[in-house]
Specification:
Blueprint lengths: L2 E3 L2 E9 L4 H11 L4 E5 L12 E2 L13 H4 L3 E4 L5 H4 L2 H21 L4 E5 L11 H15 L4 E6 L3 E2 L7 H12 L11 E2 H13 L4 E6 L5
Parallel strand pairs: 2-3, 2-5, 3-4, 5-6, 6-7, 7-10, 8-9
Antiparallel strand pairs: 1-2
Helix pairs in contact: 1-7, 4-5
The chain binds NADP nicotinamide-adenine-dinucleotide phosphate.
Length: 220
Protein backbone atom coordinates (compact mmCIF):
# COMPACT_ATOMS: atom_id res chain seq x y z
CA UNK A 1 0.00 0.00 0.00
CA UNK A 2 1.11 3.55 -0.68
CA UNK A 3 3.28 4.98 2.11
CA UNK A 4 3.27 8.68 2.92
CA UNK A 5 6.09 10.77 4.35
CA UNK A 6 4.93 14.31 4.96
CA UNK A 7 2.96 15.31 1.87
CA UNK A 8 4.80 12.88 -0.41
CA UNK A 9 3.45 9.50 -1.51
CA UNK A 10 5.70 6.52 -2.17
CA UNK A 11 4.60 3.58 -4.23
CA UNK A 12 5.33 -0.08 -3.75
CA UNK A 13 6.00 -1.80 -7.07
CA UNK A 14 6.20 -5.51 -7.91
CA UNK A 15 8.62 -6.27 -10.75
CA UNK A 16 8.56 -9.71 -12.39
CA UNK A 17 11.57 -10.68 -14.52
CA UNK A 18 13.99 -8.27 -12.81
CA UNK A 19 17.06 -10.29 -13.83
CA UNK A 20 16.26 -9.93 -17.55
CA UNK A 21 17.37 -7.23 -19.96
CA UNK A 22 14.16 -5.19 -19.74
CA UNK A 23 13.40 -6.14 -16.13
CA UNK A 24 16.85 -5.06 -14.96
CA UNK A 25 16.41 -1.68 -16.64
CA UNK A 26 12.95 -1.30 -15.06
CA UNK A 27 14.37 -2.25 -11.65
CA UNK A 28 17.17 0.30 -11.93
CA UNK A 29 14.76 3.02 -13.05
CA UNK A 30 12.25 2.20 -10.29
CA UNK A 31 14.88 2.06 -7.52
CA UNK A 32 16.20 5.45 -8.62
CA UNK A 33 12.77 7.08 -8.72
CA UNK A 34 11.78 9.35 -5.82
CA UNK A 35 8.17 8.25 -6.22
CA UNK A 36 9.00 4.61 -5.47
CA UNK A 37 9.35 3.69 -1.82
CA UNK A 38 9.86 -0.04 -2.27
CA UNK A 39 10.33 -2.60 -5.02
CA UNK A 40 9.48 -6.28 -4.54
CA UNK A 41 11.27 -8.38 -7.14
CA UNK A 42 10.85 -12.15 -6.85
CA UNK A 43 13.57 -13.88 -8.90
CA UNK A 44 15.35 -17.20 -9.39
CA UNK A 45 18.78 -15.59 -8.91
CA UNK A 46 19.66 -13.04 -6.20
CA UNK A 47 19.77 -9.38 -7.16
CA UNK A 48 22.30 -6.87 -5.85
CA UNK A 49 21.07 -5.53 -2.50
CA UNK A 50 19.50 -2.06 -2.38
CA UNK A 51 17.86 -0.30 0.57
CA UNK A 52 14.55 -0.04 -1.32
CA UNK A 53 14.59 -3.62 -2.63
CA UNK A 54 12.97 -6.77 -1.28
CA UNK A 55 14.18 -9.76 -3.29
CA UNK A 56 12.51 -13.07 -2.49
CA UNK A 57 14.42 -15.85 -4.26
CA UNK A 58 13.21 -19.32 -5.31
CA UNK A 59 14.09 -21.69 -8.12
CA UNK A 60 10.39 -22.16 -8.84
CA UNK A 61 8.62 -18.80 -8.61
CA UNK A 62 5.32 -20.58 -7.83
CA UNK A 63 6.76 -21.24 -4.37
CA UNK A 64 6.67 -17.48 -3.70
CA UNK A 65 3.01 -17.06 -4.69
CA UNK A 66 1.67 -17.80 -1.18
CA UNK A 67 3.78 -14.84 0.11
CA UNK A 68 2.45 -12.45 -2.52
CA UNK A 69 -0.58 -11.38 -0.47
CA UNK A 70 1.65 -9.81 2.22
CA UNK A 71 3.53 -7.64 -0.31
CA UNK A 72 0.52 -5.35 -0.83
CA UNK A 73 1.93 -3.52 -3.84
CA UNK A 74 0.35 -0.58 -5.64
CA UNK A 75 1.50 -1.59 -9.10
CA UNK A 76 2.89 -4.49 -11.13
CA UNK A 77 5.50 -4.46 -13.90
CA UNK A 78 5.88 -7.75 -15.73
CA UNK A 79 8.97 -8.20 -17.91
CA UNK A 80 9.15 -11.95 -17.45
CA UNK A 81 9.45 -14.23 -20.44
CA UNK A 82 11.25 -17.06 -22.14
CA UNK A 83 11.17 -18.95 -25.42
CA UNK A 84 9.86 -22.43 -26.21
CA UNK A 85 13.44 -23.54 -26.96
CA UNK A 86 14.84 -22.17 -23.69
CA UNK A 87 11.94 -23.42 -21.55
CA UNK A 88 12.12 -26.90 -23.12
CA UNK A 89 8.46 -27.33 -24.07
CA UNK A 90 5.36 -25.38 -25.04
CA UNK A 91 3.88 -26.07 -21.60
CA UNK A 92 6.96 -24.78 -19.78
CA UNK A 93 7.03 -21.67 -22.00
CA UNK A 94 3.34 -21.03 -21.32
CA UNK A 95 3.95 -21.34 -17.59
CA UNK A 96 6.48 -18.49 -17.67
CA UNK A 97 4.82 -16.23 -20.24
CA UNK A 98 1.19 -16.79 -19.20
CA UNK A 99 0.57 -18.63 -15.90
CA UNK A 100 3.09 -16.84 -13.66
CA UNK A 101 2.27 -13.27 -14.85
CA UNK A 102 -1.46 -13.92 -14.43
CA UNK A 103 -1.09 -15.58 -11.00
CA UNK A 104 1.15 -12.85 -9.49
CA UNK A 105 -0.95 -10.07 -11.04
CA UNK A 106 -4.17 -11.53 -9.58
CA UNK A 107 -2.62 -11.71 -6.10
CA UNK A 108 -1.42 -8.11 -6.39
CA UNK A 109 -4.83 -6.91 -7.61
CA UNK A 110 -6.66 -8.70 -4.79
CA UNK A 111 -4.44 -6.83 -2.32
CA UNK A 112 -5.14 -3.43 -3.86
CA UNK A 113 -2.81 -2.91 -6.85
CA UNK A 114 -4.45 -0.66 -9.43
CA UNK A 115 -1.84 -0.28 -12.17
CA UNK A 116 -0.11 -2.86 -14.32
CA UNK A 117 2.40 -2.72 -17.16
CA UNK A 118 3.14 -5.85 -19.20
CA UNK A 119 5.92 -6.47 -21.69
CA UNK A 120 4.41 -8.48 -24.53
CA UNK A 121 5.59 -8.96 -28.07
CA UNK A 122 4.89 -7.76 -31.60
CA UNK A 123 2.55 -10.21 -33.29
CA UNK A 124 0.71 -11.01 -30.04
CA UNK A 125 -2.66 -12.25 -31.25
CA UNK A 126 -5.47 -14.64 -30.37
CA UNK A 127 -6.08 -15.59 -33.98
CA UNK A 128 -2.61 -16.67 -34.99
CA UNK A 129 -1.54 -20.34 -35.20
CA UNK A 130 1.98 -19.57 -33.89
CA UNK A 131 2.02 -20.78 -30.27
CA UNK A 132 4.37 -18.01 -29.06
CA UNK A 133 2.26 -15.18 -30.48
CA UNK A 134 -1.01 -16.77 -29.38
CA UNK A 135 0.27 -17.18 -25.81
CA UNK A 136 1.28 -13.51 -25.78
CA UNK A 137 -2.19 -12.64 -27.11
CA UNK A 138 -3.79 -14.69 -24.34
CA UNK A 139 -1.74 -13.12 -21.57
CA UNK A 140 -2.63 -9.66 -22.91
CA UNK A 141 -6.34 -10.57 -22.99
CA UNK A 142 -6.49 -12.22 -19.57
CA UNK A 143 -4.39 -9.65 -17.74
CA UNK A 144 -6.91 -7.02 -18.86
CA UNK A 145 -9.74 -9.12 -17.37
CA UNK A 146 -8.25 -9.05 -13.85
CA UNK A 147 -9.68 -5.61 -13.13
CA UNK A 148 -6.71 -3.19 -12.92
CA UNK A 149 -7.78 0.43 -13.34
CA UNK A 150 -4.77 1.14 -15.55
CA UNK A 151 -3.17 -1.36 -17.94
CA UNK A 152 -0.24 -0.64 -20.24
CA UNK A 153 0.84 -3.24 -22.75
CA UNK A 154 4.24 -2.75 -24.34
CA UNK A 155 5.14 -4.61 -27.52
CA UNK A 156 8.82 -3.93 -28.21
CA UNK A 157 10.50 -4.95 -31.44
CA UNK A 158 14.19 -5.76 -31.22
CA UNK A 159 15.43 -5.06 -27.70
CA UNK A 160 18.80 -3.35 -27.24
CA UNK A 161 20.73 -3.97 -24.01
CA UNK A 162 23.43 -6.03 -22.34
CA UNK A 163 22.55 -9.72 -22.60
CA UNK A 164 24.58 -12.43 -20.83
CA UNK A 165 23.28 -15.28 -22.93
CA UNK A 166 24.42 -15.71 -26.56
CA UNK A 167 21.63 -15.28 -29.13
CA UNK A 168 23.06 -15.75 -32.61
CA UNK A 169 20.27 -13.99 -34.53
CA UNK A 170 20.44 -10.98 -32.19
CA UNK A 171 24.26 -10.78 -32.37
CA UNK A 172 24.01 -10.66 -36.16
CA UNK A 173 21.03 -8.36 -36.58
CA UNK A 174 21.51 -5.82 -33.73
CA UNK A 175 24.76 -4.22 -35.01
CA UNK A 176 23.28 -3.85 -38.51
CA UNK A 177 20.06 -2.41 -37.10
CA UNK A 178 22.08 0.05 -34.96
CA UNK A 179 24.14 1.11 -38.01
CA UNK A 180 21.05 1.63 -40.15
CA UNK A 181 19.12 3.23 -37.26
CA UNK A 182 18.53 6.66 -38.86
CA UNK A 183 17.45 5.09 -42.16
CA UNK A 184 15.03 2.50 -40.78
CA UNK A 185 11.32 3.25 -40.28
CA UNK A 186 10.61 3.83 -36.57
CA UNK A 187 8.76 0.51 -36.27
CA UNK A 188 11.91 -1.43 -37.26
CA UNK A 189 14.45 0.42 -35.11
CA UNK A 190 16.07 -1.10 -32.03
CA UNK A 191 14.19 -0.44 -28.80
CA UNK A 192 16.72 0.25 -26.02
CA UNK A 193 15.79 -1.55 -22.79
CA UNK A 194 16.05 1.79 -20.95
CA UNK A 195 13.32 3.30 -23.17
CA UNK A 196 11.04 0.33 -22.53
CA UNK A 197 11.76 0.62 -18.79
CA UNK A 198 10.83 4.32 -18.83
CA UNK A 199 7.44 3.54 -20.41
CA UNK A 200 6.80 0.72 -17.93
CA UNK A 201 7.73 2.72 -14.83
CA UNK A 202 6.10 5.99 -15.93
CA UNK A 203 2.86 4.20 -16.76
CA UNK A 204 2.51 2.72 -13.28
CA UNK A 205 3.75 5.76 -11.34
CA UNK A 206 1.30 8.08 -13.10
CA UNK A 207 -1.43 5.61 -14.06
CA UNK A 208 -4.10 6.66 -16.52
CA UNK A 209 -7.41 4.80 -16.42
CA UNK A 210 -8.03 2.31 -19.24
CA UNK A 211 -5.79 0.24 -21.49
CA UNK A 212 -2.90 1.63 -23.55
CA UNK A 213 -0.64 -0.05 -26.07
CA UNK A 214 2.95 1.02 -26.78
CA UNK A 215 4.59 -0.49 -29.85
CA UNK A 216 8.10 -0.47 -31.24
CA UNK A 217 7.68 2.96 -32.85
CA UNK A 218 6.92 4.47 -29.41
CA UNK A 219 10.06 2.96 -27.88
CA UNK A 220 12.79 4.17 -30.24
N1 LIG B 1 14.26 -10.21 -26.65
C1 LIG B 1 13.52 -9.59 -27.54
O1 LIG B 1 14.04 -9.09 -28.55
C2 LIG B 1 12.03 -9.44 -27.32
C3 LIG B 1 11.26 -8.85 -28.30
C4 LIG B 1 9.89 -8.64 -28.05
C5 LIG B 1 9.33 -9.01 -26.85
N2 LIG B 1 10.10 -9.62 -25.91
C6 LIG B 1 9.48 -9.95 -24.61
O2 LIG B 1 9.94 -9.00 -23.68
C7 LIG B 1 10.00 -9.58 -22.36
C8 LIG B 1 11.35 -9.29 -21.75
O3 LIG B 1 12.36 -9.68 -22.65
P1 LIG B 1 13.89 -9.73 -22.23
O4 LIG B 1 14.67 -9.75 -23.48
O5 LIG B 1 14.16 -8.68 -21.19
O6 LIG B 1 13.94 -11.17 -21.53
P2 LIG B 1 15.16 -11.85 -20.77
O7 LIG B 1 16.35 -10.97 -20.74
O8 LIG B 1 15.32 -13.22 -21.33
O9 LIG B 1 14.58 -11.96 -19.27
C9 LIG B 1 13.51 -12.79 -18.99
C10 LIG B 1 13.17 -12.74 -17.51
O10 LIG B 1 12.20 -13.76 -17.25
C11 LIG B 1 12.71 -14.63 -16.24
N3 LIG B 1 12.36 -16.03 -16.43
C12 LIG B 1 12.55 -16.80 -17.52
N4 LIG B 1 12.17 -18.07 -17.27
C13 LIG B 1 11.73 -18.10 -15.98
C14 LIG B 1 11.21 -19.12 -15.12
N5 LIG B 1 11.06 -20.38 -15.53
N6 LIG B 1 10.86 -18.79 -13.86
C15 LIG B 1 11.02 -17.52 -13.43
N7 LIG B 1 11.51 -16.51 -14.18
C16 LIG B 1 11.86 -16.80 -15.45
C17 LIG B 1 14.21 -14.52 -16.36
O11 LIG B 1 14.79 -14.99 -15.14
P3 LIG B 1 16.24 -15.73 -15.14
O12 LIG B 1 17.23 -14.60 -15.22
O13 LIG B 1 16.24 -16.46 -13.87
O14 LIG B 1 16.27 -16.62 -16.36
C18 LIG B 1 14.37 -13.04 -16.60
O15 LIG B 1 14.24 -12.31 -15.40
C19 LIG B 1 9.67 -11.05 -22.54
O16 LIG B 1 8.32 -11.25 -22.20
C20 LIG B 1 9.87 -11.29 -24.03
O17 LIG B 1 9.01 -12.30 -24.50
C21 LIG B 1 11.44 -9.82 -26.12
Amino acid sequence: MQETRGDERFMKVLILGATGVVGKAALERALGDRGVGQVIAPTRRSLAPHPKLINPVAQELDLLLPDAHVWEVDAVICAMGTTIRKAGSKAAFRHVDYALPIAFSKEAYQKGAQALALVSSPGASLSIPLFYCRTKGEVERDIQKIGFESVTIVRPGMIGGERNEFRLAERMVLPVAKLLHPLLPRALRVNPAANIADVLVDSVLAPKPGVRLATSRDLV
